[in-house]
Amino acid sequence: MACLFCAAPPAWSLRPSFGLQLRDGSYLAEFLLEKGYEVHGIVRRSSSFNTGRIEHLYKNPQAHIEGNMKLHYGDLTDSTCLVKIINEVKPTEIYNLGAQSHVKISFDLAEYTADVDGIGTLRLLDAIKTCGLINSVKFYQASTSELFGKVQEIPQKETTPFYPRSPYGAAKLYAYWIVVNFREAYNLFAVNGILFNHESPRRGANFVTRKISRSVAKIHLGQLECFSLGNLDAKRDWGHAMDYVEAMWLMLQTDEPEDFVIATGEVHSVREFVEKSFKHIGKTIVWEGKNENEVGRCKETGKIHVTVNLKYYRPTEVEFLQGDCTKAKQKLNWIPRVTFDDLVKEMVDADVELMRNNPNA
């Protein structure tokens, strides 16, 4: 779960901020620190350190000594701590990236997902109001292309009707509309960034793109022979997380709050992600069989490297997502820079390096 707050500028050139350790949060923290912000992050209490993606941002990473990035213990399920932190930091920008963000797992943790992703957003907005910061804070809500679910038009843009197909999507739908409500009811500068899939080497290991890049890296190094996936034909609009955090920031630099779709406009299947990942390590995947009996075999060696397992299918699938970011290009002057091919190569290369140094990572 990740939350990033950017506080008002003190007398010097830094602007304080606050955030969690998730993938987007780590890239956003880097981005804001480079711009002179002081970054504050919310982290949940854990029996082990859970700051791996941001350790390099400490003033002293070995001792976890903070510099312009400061961490606070908190949780989106705890209203009291949110009020306390916001009142202490008094931020001018708040980025809510906090969520149980795994769509498949949201079917197993539906109530928790609703509590964190939906009501958690309301808790943050209420905390801003309670602290009397409505007129001084700009609020960014990490929305999602999963709102579109069973798509009503292609491509999807800001005016496309929503049709979520998971507890995650439904929870995010509540969060989307409560942000709009606070914007209209209290004149809060609050925006929804409807971000399509954005990946990176920091993506969690149980998300499909990272599962592919990790498994391909292990196969390349002789540490694994085969791995299983779900729906190979699901198609997504994949971009790079670094490009997308810039769009988050740009949304809060505008004169008037508006919601934006952030996407590349290109569509690729899970199958294609697999093929390009293997191609990068010199292997050609040939598909045999159908449905749950389909396998991906290496053309060069004859070994089966990919199988299909029905347990990875969602109860209600989202087959096709493609974003239209024309509005963001026109009003934010934002464009995606990292291509799909470069994204795949970066993720595979990073995991080859990771697994070479630590096969159990």
Report what the structure shows:
- There is one protein chain.
- The chain is an alpha/beta fold and 361 residues long.
- The protein has a single domain (2-205, 238-266, 318-338), classed as Rossmann fold, CATH 3.40.50.
- The chain has ten helices and 16 strands.
- It has helices at 23-34, 79-89, 103-106, 110-130, 167-186, 208-220, 241-251, 270-280, 326-331, 340-357; strands at residues 3-7, 17-18, 39-43, 69-73, 91-96, 138-144, 189-195, 198-199, 227-229, 235-236, 239-240, 260-262, 268-269, 285-288, 295-298, 304-308.
- The strands form five sheets. A six-stranded mixed beta sheet has the order 2-1-5-6-7-12, sandwiched between helices.
- Strand 14 and strand 15 form a beta hairpin.
- Helix 6 (208-220) packs across helix 10 (340-357).
- The relative contact order is 0.12.
- It is an enzyme of class 4 (lyase).
- Its cofactor is NADP(+).
- InterPro entries: GDP_Man_deHydtase (IPR006368), NAD(P)-bd_dom (IPR016040), NAD(P)-bd_dom_sf (IPR036291).
- Its EC number is 4.2.1.47.
Structural class: alpha/beta
Main sheet makeup: 6 strands, mixed
Calculate the mean pLDDT score and round it. 89
Regions with little confidence, pLDDT below 50 for 5+ residues = 1-21
In the CATH scheme, the class would be Alpha Beta
Tell me the Rg in angstroms: 21 Å
Strand content: 15-25%
Global shape: globular
Structural domains: how many: 1
Name the CATH architecture. Answer: 3-Layer(aba) Sandwich
By DSSP (H or I, 4+ residues per run), the number of helices equals 10
Largest beta sheet: strand ordering:
2-1-5-6-7-12
Helix and strand sequence? EEHEEHEHHEHEEHEEEHEEHEEEHH
Function: Catalyzes the conversion of GDP-D-mannose to GDP-4-dehydro-6-deoxy-D-mannose.
InterPro entries: GDP_Man_deHydtase (IPR006368), NAD(P)-bd_dom (IPR016040), NAD(P)-bd_dom_sf (IPR036291)
Keywords: Lyase, NADP
Catalytic activity: GDP-alpha-D-mannose = GDP-4-dehydro-alpha-D-rhamnose + H2O
